[in-house]
Amino acid sequence: MAYQVRINGELRELDVPEDMPLLWAIRNEIGLLGTKFGCGMGLCGACTVHVDGVAQRSCSLPVGSIGTAEVTTIEGLGDTEIGRALQQVWVEEDVMQCGYCQAGQLMNASALLKRNPAPNARQIDAAMSGNICRCACYTRIRDAIAQVAD
Ligand code: FES
Q: What SUPFAM superfamilies does its record include (predicted)?
């Protein structure tokens, strides 16, 4: 089916089955490769994007369910003040190790700070607990988010 999906502020044409996971549309049809495949079952958070500002797992979200919602991927995160600040601290604090999960971590972190600009350590851990990092960079992730928090 033909869809028009707004991604990172741009209207993109998609001709895909309605049940295609948004992740595959973003990566394979549109060519934005920052959003990663981890588990494909909504369990790891590597594929996190924003749909109307809310963190969602794109591996579990059918393209047909997006409608007129605004999708933001890691490639568009720097267009927001919170996203820019997080990316800068991520680099300054050397948060990443292998880096594979980090797009999802950043997307979830920015959604957290949008809904709660001043989370404490426990709230950060709770909000980020579904984003798995095989290199276990959790302490650096928490500290970086805390630096951007008000
Ligand atoms: Fe989507 Fe793991 S790839 S949650």
A: 2Fe-2S ferredoxin-like, CO dehydrogenase ISP C-domain like
Ligand 1 centre to CA of 48 (Å) is: 7
Among residues 40, 26, 38, 41, the alpha carbon closest in space to that of 105 is found at 38
Ligand 1 contacts (CB < 6 A) are: 37-40, 42-47, 57, 59
For domain 2-76, give the fold: Ubiquitin-like (UB roll) (3.10.20)
**Other C-beta atoms lying within 10 Å of the C-beta of residue 111:** 20
Is the full-model pTM beyond 0.95?
A: yes
pLDDT digits (tens, 9 = 90+) for 67-80: 999 999 999 999 99
The domain 78-148 having CATH identifier 2.102.10.10: the answer here is no
The alpha carbons of the chain give a radius of gyration, in whole angstroms, of 15
Pairing outcome for strands 48-51 and 10-15:
unpaired
Biggest CA pair distance of the chain: 45
